[in-house]
Amino acid sequence: MTLDLFGNHTTDDIANPHADTLGPGASVLRGFARSRLAVLQADIDAVIAQAPLRHWLTPGGKRMSVAMTNCGEVGWISDRMGYRYGTHDPLSKQPWPAMPASFVALAREASEAVGYRNFAPDACLINRYTLDARLTLHQDRDERELGAPIVSVSLGLPATFLWGGLQRGDRTRRVRLEPGDVVVWGGPSRLVYHGIASVEGSFDAQAVRYNLTFRQAR
Ligand code: MD6
Ligand code: FE
């Protein structure tokens, strides 16, 4: 058991036999959500029916290739004014849909499986990738509570995830993420640069990749 840099969460991923370690405080739980994929997908579809997927503009004015929406008390927003969390969907002016119970349970169980206690996400970002979508190398640093981990769940098509270092120019490792894989990371790895290099599938199929990321944003 090691105390992380922020002192308020512990990590013990070596104790979990199904966890691949990415770095200190960061693990891939292979297939952790596999038995729940149908329920999760139905709940994603219900959120999207209330808060449709959309392509945010970056602060520089570029349309993101990944389509996004949110559920939970706050949602991640990007536009010309910058990246931030907000309580309302800027399209509908309504509060973001509530986090489905299946999401809350998965985020809690996955974080506990690698030793993070009392993870209480208030934000869930839903990302949808078509075959041409990419997510360039970035840090997740718009959250107020950087002592809390992030839990990330993959559904649909497999993807090549890039896992870098604490500097943008650090070497990156390519990690294949399959549907049902859950990545949990925090502690000394919380600000590691990462991205999605590609999504694998054939262009004739109508398939997409979904990713859920749970955060304690405020
Ligand atoms: C994705 N994930 O897997 C993109 N960010 O589609 C992320 O950007 C991410 O997986 C923070 C923590 C975990 C993640
Ligand atoms: Fe991220």
Automatic annotation (TrEMBL):
Cofactor(s) recorded in Swiss-Prot or TrEMBL: Fe(2+)
InterPro entries (UniProt xref): Alkb (IPR004574), AlkB-like (IPR027450), AlkB-like_sf (IPR037151), Oxoglu/Fe-dep_dioxygenase_dom (IPR005123)
One Pfam family linked to the record: 2OG-FeII_Oxy_2
The keyword Plastid appears for this protein: no
Entry protein name: Alpha-ketoglutarate-dependent dioxygenase AlkB
Transmembrane segments: none
Coiled-coil regions, chain positions: none
Keyword entries, A-Z: Dioxygenase, Iron, Metal-binding, Oxidoreductase
UniProt keyword Methyltransferase present: no
Gene3D superfamilies per UniProt: Alpha-ketoglutarate-dependent dioxygenase AlkB-like
Residues annotated as domain Fe2OG dioxygenase: 120-218
Annotated PANTHER family: ALKYLATED DNA REPAIR PROTEIN ALKB-RELATED, NUCLEIC ACID DIOXYGENASE ALKBH1
Annotated source species: Pandoraea vervacti
Any GO molecular function: dioxygenase activity
